[in-house]
Amino acid sequence: xxAWLTIVLIVIVLVIVAAILLAVRAGRRKKLQQTFGPExxxxxxxxDSRTDAERELREREKRHAELELKPLSxxxxxxxxxxxxxxxxxxxxxxxxxxxxxxxxxxRLIAERGYPTGDYDDQLATLSVEHARTLEHYRDAHAIxxxxxxxxxxxxxxxxxxxxxxxxxxxxxxxNPVRSEGASTPADEPxxxxxxxxxxxxxxxxxxxxxxxx
Length: 214
Description:
Elements: H1 3-36, H2 38-46, H3 50-65, H4 74-93, H5 95-113, H6 120-149, H7 155-173, E1 191-192, E2 195-196, H8 200-203
Antiparallel strand pairs: 1-2
Region (Disordered): 177-214
Transmembrane segments: 6-24
Protein name: Secreted protein
């Protein structure tokens, strides 16, 4: 075999190997984007490089796989649905207390599902694997709740916090926590003065973009 033919064959093999590696990397990236949705873009934006971001997301998947997650019983779902409706009723007269209760109720639900609740950042990281598309709601709710503790949140802020908490709460519960909603129209839903607190799909969640390839 001549030297030039050997070189050509080597180049062809290298091109094929490179194409395979690129395809594998693209497949892994697509899987991460599908798993983490908008959280993928957030982590990439905060990381030094896309490679570091994707390494972090794979580490989250590993930690998540070590958890012993538990499904909720029908009794637990009913209990949480009743508790959430009570929070919404409480909001009318005591919005700050209602938001604080919503935070505690959501944390209890997170713990009952088997997720860690000690460190807030760890909590977000593990939740992001299966609940990435409602995680930004939880961040927003938590931020408003913290401002509320310092007296820096008005009634509209608190209403939005309850909407945000409800998004993750429903995701973890696996169903709408407001049992009376069903196929009802928005006019049938419980309200605070001049505002809805139930319809997070149209009020807030619909504004969240999914991740897109970069």
